[in-house]
Prior knowledge:
Elements: E1 4-11, H1 18-31, E2 34-37, E3 44-50, E4 58-62, H2 71-84, E5 88-94, E6 98-104, E7 110-117, H3 120-123, H4 132-135, H5 145-153, H6 159-169, E8 186-191, H7 201-213, E9 219-220, E10 228-233, E11 238-246, E12 250-259, H8 280-292, E13 303-304, H9 310-332, H10 338-347, H11 383-402, H12 409-434, H13 437-460
Antiparallel strand pairs: 1-4, 1-5, 2-8, 3-4, 3-8, 5-6, 6-7, 9-10, 10-11, 11-12, 12-13
Amino acid sequence: xxxxxxxxxxxxxxxxxxxxxxxxxxxxxxxxxxxxxxxxxxxxxxxxxxxxxxxxxxxxxxxxxxxxxxxxxxxxxxxxxxxxxxxxxxxxxxxxxxxxxxxxxxxxxxxxxxxxxxxxxxxxxxxxxxxxxxxxxxxxxxxxxxxxxxxxxxxxxxxxxxxxxxxxxxxxxxxxxxxxxxxxxxxxxxxxxxxxxxxxxxxxxxxxxxxxxxxxxxxxxxxxxxxxxxxxxxxxxxxxxxxxxxxxxxxxxxxxxxxxxxxxxxxxxxxxxxxxxxxxxxxxxxxxxxxxxxxxxxxxxxxxxxxxxxxxxxxxxxxxxxxxxxxxxxxxxxxxxxxxxxxxxxxxxxxxxxxxxxxxxxxxxxxxxxxxxxxxxxxxxxxxxxxxxxxxxxxxxxxxxxxxxxxxxxxxxxxxxxxxxxxxxxxxxxxxxxxxxxxxxxxxxxxxxxxxxxxxxxxxxxxxx
Length: 465
């Protein structure tokens, strides 16, 4: 058995001298993320052999990382050809009587394979001749194509002799294909240390919250000035919103529930909208009072971080996520219908504002975040009377029991009477609309307009409803 070695021939069309070529090679490697280093630090190293003939357009290179099998050498030759923007040949010598030369173009594409010597054992009996159109441009002016083919097809006792002859046809009397000493013109490279990418609080919010919220059905909203996550529930008419604010190094999440029945869905408001996007402390209060029945203390959910400090930002956003999972998510999970939305609004001290759907004497004015218009989209709008009465009554009874006598029975009964009056007012409003064709038609038209408009807005933000 003979020896095996592989080398790469690089076309040096500019005829750069050794120093200029090696400098260029280092610069190109740097653009690919590798920097020159000491040999004991190197992840990959290359040795180069240069011709003494100043007119030679070829540089021979090899690497100890190639080894036998040649797969590393082939892929690396393709990379180098593309990196330098030049033609490269990867040459493999097998058993001293066979050589395989793979030719790569300036884009790193393998364009042809040339075989010399006895290759039957490796490639079979049918070996194609080299492609004239890709090899002829490399042949010296004093040689014809036929002479090139004659050199390739000639029988050689040792294939190195044939490779020397081949070298002469492409521009030098010295062999380009000799085994390169791994100590010649040795360059070692290692991966350049990556600078830590600056992380913004918004990017951290999207990634860290997304890992938890997206499996729960939330999507990161598109085209919003302030980052937020959205989730449609029910019939797509109720939407959970978790919105992120970064106020000069102080992070805050504001969350809420909207419906497609409000005057206008606006997720691009960069200011705090406490009317329908309460802070985490409101959810903390709600969770303790209405879900657990516990007493609670003041709670400040805002979390500070150090700017331009990735670790600090990640830590702060993770803390904010923990608070959101603990206090906000359990509340939102309970709001899955329009009736749930009514209970949610009342618990957070807001009125659904059923009147805010059409112009009625004495009932004018409406808030853009009011969702009460859904009332007249129900099959039976009077059902809302039972819902509201039960919610308010449960609240008053709970306060009465916890008051330890501070709320007298007379005060308790007055509260119940106020609830009855409130429900009577709503019933009269429903009667008024249903018994007035003009107002009823105006109301239904307004509702349909809002639903269509707000559905389109939410779809633009990425919700599939």
